[in-house]
Amino acid sequence: MGDHSDGIPAGSDAVAKAGLNEVEKFQDPGLPPHRLRLADTDPRAAKRAERQVAILFGVSVVGTLLFFFGYFFIRLDDTIATLRLQNMLLGLGTAFAMLGIGTGIVHWARALMPDHEVSEERHELRSEADREAAVKIVDDIVEETGIKRRPLIRNTLLGAVALAPFPAIVMFRDLGPLPANALKHTMWDKGIRLVRDPTGTPIKASDVTLGSAFHVIPDGLNDLHEGKLEEKAKAVVLLMRLDPSQLNPSKGREDWSYNGIVAYSKICTHVGCPVALYEQQTHHLLCPCHQSTFDLTQECKVIFGPANRPLPQLPISIDSEGYLVAQSDFHEPVGPSFWERG
Amino acid sequence: MKALSQKRRHPLAAVALLLLGLMLTGGLYAVVTTANQAKADTTYSANDAQEGGKLFIANCATCHGMGASGSPDGPSLVGVGAAAVDFQVGTGRMPMQLQGPQAQQKPRQFNDEQTHQLAAYVASLGAGPAIPEAQYTEGGGNAANGGVLFRVNCAMCHNAAAAGGALTRGKFAPALAGVSNQHIYEAMVTGPQNMPVFNDANITPNNKRDIIAFLDTIDANGSPGGAALGSLGPVSEGLFIWIAGLGVVIAFTVWLTSRTS
Description:
The complex is a heterodimer of chains A (342) and B (261). Chain A has helices at 12-19, 38-41, 43-73, 80-111, 128-145, 151-163, 166-173, 228-235, and strands at residues 2-3, 118-119, 194-196, 213-218, 237-241, 261-265, 277-279, 284-286, 293-295, 301-304, 313-314, 316-318, 324-326. With 342 residues, chain A is α+β, with helices and mostly antiparallel strands. In chain A, the strands form 4 sheets. A 5-stranded antiparallel beta sheet of chain A has the order 3-4-5-6-11. A 4-stranded antiparallel beta sheet of chain A has the order 7-8-9-10, with no helix packed on it. In chain A, α3 runs antiparallel to α4. Chain A has 2 domains: 38-116 and 128-173; 181-339, Rieske Iron-sulfur Protein (3-layer Sandwich), CATH 2.102.10. In chain A, 36% of the residues lie in helices and 13% in strands. Chain B has 261 residues and is mostly helical. Chain B has helices at 2-6, 13-38, 46-59, 61-64, 81-90, 112-125, 134-137, 143-153, 155-158, 181-190, 205-221, 234-257, and strands at 165-166, 172-173. The A-B interface holds A 35, 37-39, 79-81, 83-84, 87-88, 91, 106, 110-111, 115, 196-198, 203-204, 206-215, 240, 274, 276-282, 284, 286, 288, 291, 293, 304 and B 148-149, 152-153, 156-157, 165, 167-169, 171, 173, 191, 193-199, 201-202, 221-226, 255-256, 259-261.
């Protein structure tokens, strides 16, 4: 530790002396000369800095008062405008209260407090003797436990340690049931009506005019008391009507639509965002998260973006009253890939 | 008058002036909006349709064809209804300035009367959505219910704060702030350009009124949390905090480590 409060670059002499014998050694340039600040020499500058610090602390006081003004004197009525005003006063008040104290202290320390440079010596490296003593301690332990001479003890200990973590695995397993086949099935089933989200009213095929898009949930979803969101997250469907000539169903899927009305899962096959940006002229479905684009005229084939599989189609038909119903569940798991999907 | 001039340096004078200004703007706004609502009348005379036909031939038939039967450059307008005309022409989207991914909003080229005549002409070609009745566009309605419906049906394209958003290949869903109630209603029933149709069987007229009430409410209330930065979410907010927030941090670091003069 060398104290240079006198401002003279001390220590450089000592280094220079040592360097006389060993010319190759790096020369410690020492500390740069201490430079006096304006406030050190000019009492008026010191006074000015003092005032500045006081003003910064004053800013903090004003900030705190602003907070209390906002808290007690802004009367909240039914409009958001007063809430916004109060929020702003609370935020600005707290910010200036903290900032004033912080900047004030920093300015005080920089401009007025003594600014002598201090250098600290690096501590001594450990000696070889210390290292050997540590190695000896370990050797002594190994020797005194006799673990090398008593293999029975060593092996049983290894066995016990290897086995001990297994209860933790069992306990982690208790954190929740495995999803089983919940990811492979949704609420949709034969004869379940397609109803509007969120009202739950059924949809007549004649309601779905050309160019329409309906946001659909399965009938009965709104009556669920438990797991409603989980079921909804899997079962949401977008219902659209195209000119039947524009649909190009593949073999086996010809009767999955009704008069050009098709229903597709709204859950993106990439990471599961709701794909509901339907363009009625181009028949593109766009996922807002990563711009995966699905072409409705090609059974929602991916035409752009990171999604890997087309959106699953829900086979639909109509019941005796003319309402749209599902023919069955989706024929494949909806949403993004998962480990067991295969 | 003298008393007034003496009090003009009163500490509360600025507040009083501000209040006066706000009340004046509010009053003017109310007058202007009632004037807008008053224009919605939906009866057409034979003369309207005839005049509209002339306007159509002069301004629209190049793309939409004679008799509005369509051409390779523009779709047929038979059966699109008066609502579609009032929306497209009333917001300046039609006549289109240039071919592009979608027709852009611009200053309207036809006045109310001409728009009315064009609507009369197109409505006479075939049945289609009519201009909405005033009761659904005059305000009122349940904004909370409208908010639920908006988030299910509209927010994916138009953004949860109705700030608009991008679609594929240069198309976009426009921001809805400042769009008149009638035009919002007409857009829902007609599905202009790539917007899907939300007919009355999907969203009932009363529910459409609720959606409009929601949009009016968020328009009037503004952002509850201070600067909305365009309500675009993490893009604008992230940009702001990376530039302004980190800028402040860097500035403080420079200040902390610099020498005092």
